[in-house]
């Protein structure tokens, strides 16, 4: 069951302070990492208020042990926790006082402008869709993951929200990620590509063939189908795919880079000449590891809901949480959801006119 479509709004439009709720209990890392990240963000960005959602007593004791100071931060009691393995909808119904439910509800009630979570992604996506609704015209939300591919950023959408998509869903993913790439990543005219098994328009399954047709007619800088080799040679700035392929791509890319760095370290320990080479190329190897470091961008926004929702890696440390809060702040500051709502409606109107 989906929430009714609504017009997008910017809760902080009349305020200089962005109120960002952080899921303090969601994630695999120790709670202190998320608390430290929230504190670091509050200290670094004086124009935001950070709200920690979690068990009040535990958060208060954790805050007392942290040395980071400064900034505006407060606690909202959310005593229940949704574990990573729990079925999303069932968990949300059974735990209305979870940190995810409480944080998303704060946006719906106008008490927060954004929510950051390293917890159960399915529960975050379900709660946001049900409680916040979608901008008018948006079919389904999607998770847009900014990735550092060697020397350039690429936004991949969707990377896990919807494994079964319709062609119009992929079209809207391209439109929404185009706005995100412009407003937050800073890419002036994003090249939008469609992940496929071949470059020709006739390649792929029925989903990608129909999506290709829709994307080519949209007001986008659409560059066609993108194969894996083109992806790794900067063939596009935005990569559109369904959540199944996107999630595999994201995890494969992260794992490959981290394993490659690990393998090189193993080789260095065994051979003296490799040690010399490693010493001479430390900066290059450091950059390679940086490419697989999800904490650099912080998190991936759930695009297509009436509110700013950032999901980040379950193992996110303090640095990743701090950067996810920074990303949420940028979303609020640039009114990204307003731009997305307008872009989707303009595309729908253009298709009605052409029809």
Structure overview:
It is a single chain. With 355 residues, the chain is an alpha/beta fold. The protein folds into two domains: 1-138 and 304-334, Isopropylmalate Dehydrogenase; 141-296, Isopropylmalate Dehydrogenase (3-Layer(aba) Sandwich), CATH 3.40.718.10. Helix content is 48%, strand content 17%. The chain contains 13 helices and eleven strands. It has helices at residues 31-44, 56-65, 88-94, 99-108, 121-132, 167-185, 206-217, 228-231, 243-270, 272-280, 282-291, 318-334, 336-354, and strands spanning 18-23, 48-54, 72-77, 114-117, 142-149, 152-157, 191-195, 221-226, 238-240, 300-303, 308-311. It has an eleven-stranded mixed β-sheet with strand order 3-2-1-4-11-10-5-6-9-7-8, with helices on both faces. The two termini are 30 Å apart. 47% of the residues are buried.
Summarize the structure in short.
48% of the residues lie in helices and 17% in strands.
The total count of helices amounts to 13
Major sheet size, sense and barrel closure:
11 strands, mixed
CATH architecture of the largest domain: 3-Layer(aba) Sandwich
The CATH superfamily title of the largest domain: Isopropylmalate Dehydrogenase
Q: Summarize the amount of helix as a percent range.
A: 40-55%
- The coarse overall form would be globular
Tell me the β content. Answer: 15-25%
Total number of distinct structural domains: 2
* Gyration radius, in Å: 21 Å
Residue-averaged pLDDT, rounded? 88
Give the structural class: alpha/beta
Count the strands?
Answer: 11
CATH domain topology of the largest domain: Isopropylmalate Dehydrogenase
């Amino acid at each position: 069951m989906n929430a009714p479509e609504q017009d997008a709004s910017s809760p902080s439009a009349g305020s200089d302070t962005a109120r960002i709720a952080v899921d303090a209990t969601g994630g695999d890392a120790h709670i202190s990492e998320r608390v430290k990240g929230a504190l670091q963000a509050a200290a670094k960005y004086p124009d935001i208020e950070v709200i920690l959602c979690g068990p009040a007593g535990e958060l208060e004791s954790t805050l007392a042990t942290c040395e980071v100071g400064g900034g505006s931060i407060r606690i909202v009691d959310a005593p229940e926790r949704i574990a990573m393995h729990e079925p999303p909808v069932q968990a949300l119904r059974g735990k209305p006082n979870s940190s995810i439910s409480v944080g998303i509800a704060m946006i719906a009630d106008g008490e927060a402008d954004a929510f950051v979570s390293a917890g159960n992604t399915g529960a975050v996506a379900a709660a946001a869709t049900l409680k916040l609704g979608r901008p008018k015209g948006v079919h389904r939300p999607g998770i847009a993951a900014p990735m550092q591919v060697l020397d350039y950023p690429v936004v991949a959408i969707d990377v896990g929200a919807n494994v079964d998509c319709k062609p119009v869903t992929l079209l809207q993913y391209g439109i929404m990620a185009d706005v995100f790439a412009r407003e937050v990543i800073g890419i002036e005219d994003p090249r939008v590509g469609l992940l496929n098994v071949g470059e020709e328009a006739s390649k792929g399954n029925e989903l990608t063939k129909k999506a290709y047709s829709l994307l080519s007619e949209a007001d986008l800088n659409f560059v066609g189908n993108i194969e894996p080799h083109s992806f790794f040679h900067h063939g596009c700035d935005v990569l559109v795919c369904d959540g199944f392929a996107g999630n595999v791509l994201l995890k494969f890319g992260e794992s490959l880079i981290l394993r490659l760095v690990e393998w090189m370290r193993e080789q260095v320990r065994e051979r003296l000449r490799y040690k010399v080479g490693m010493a001479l190329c430390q900066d290059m190897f450091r950059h390679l590891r940086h490419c697989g470091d999800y904490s650099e961008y912080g998190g991936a926004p759930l695009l297509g809901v009436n509110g700013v929702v950032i999901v980040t890696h379950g193992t996110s440390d303090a640095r990743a949480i701090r950067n996810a809060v920074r990303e949420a702040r940028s979303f609020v500051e640039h009114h990204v959801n307003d731009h997305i709502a307008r872009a989707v409606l303009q595309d729908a109107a253009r298709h009605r006119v052409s029809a």
